[in-house]
Amino acid sequence: MATERILIVDDEETLCEVLQLNLENEGYDVDIAFSAEEALTLDFKKYSLILLDIMMGGISGIKMAKMLKADLKTAEIPIIFCTARDTEDDMVMGLNLGADDYIMKPYTIRNVIARVKSVLRRTVTHKSNNVHSDKTNIMQVEGLRLNLEFKRCTVDGAEVKLTRKEFELLAYLISHRGKILSREQILSKIWKEEVVVLDRTIDVNITRVRSKIGAYGSYIVTRSGFGYGFRD
What we know:
- It is a single chain.
- By secondary structure, the protein is of the alpha/beta class.
- The protein has helices at about 15-25, 35-40, 60-70, 90-95, 110-130, 130-135, 165-175, 185-190, 200-210; strands at about 5-10, 30-35, 50-55, 80-85, 100-105, 140, 145, 150-155, 160, 180, 220-225, 225-230.
- The strands form three sheets. It has a five-stranded parallel beta sheet, with helices on both faces. Strands 6-7-8-9 form a four-stranded antiparallel beta sheet. It has a three-stranded antiparallel beta sheet with strand order 10-12-11.
- The protein is elongated, with a radius of gyration of 23 Å.
- The two termini are about 45 Å apart.
C-alpha cells in the first residue's frame, strides 16, 4: 500500500474533498490547502507530490510553482497542474516551470489517480537511477550548490553565472574543503593549459567568485603567503 503524502492546493473546496477521499482510498496520505498562501505555510519536506490548481485568487498556481522550483529544499517535489485553462500556452508554461504533468478540468477521478501513480512511479525510478550521479556530480554547502555535470551554480536556489575558470576554481576549493591550497597548486589545476599566468589572475578570480556567491563568499579564506581555501 502506498505511503506517500500528497498535497492538494485548490480553492474549490468540494473538489478538494472528493480528491482527498479518493486518493486516501488508494492508500495515500492527503492534505488540503484552499489557497497558495495557506499551502506556503506548510512543511513541504513531507510531501511526495503536489496537485496544484493554476487559477486561484491571490497567489496563482504558476507563481507558487515558481517559488517552489526556485528553492533547493522544494525544487525536486513533483507537481501536477490541475486547471480549467486549456490553451497550449498555459500548458507549455506549466511544463517549462518543471511541472511533471498537466490535467485539464473537468477530469475524472480515475484519470487523476492514474496520473498521480505515474508521476510517483517516475519519481521513484529517477531517484533510484541517480543516486550515484547525485553523489558524484553535486557539491553543496548549505545553500551553495554546484552541479558538476551541467556546470551550474545556484545560491539559495537562484542561478549564478560563473565563467568556466570561476566555476572550476570554486569547485576545486570546495573539493579540498578545510585545506589551504597554494597558488602553485591552483595554477597547475585550473590554468594548466596556459603558458603564462600571473598570480594576480588568481586574486581577481577569487574576488569575482566571492562577490557572485554572496554570503557564501566568506567561506573562501585567504592565508597570506600560503594560498586560498574553503573553510569548514
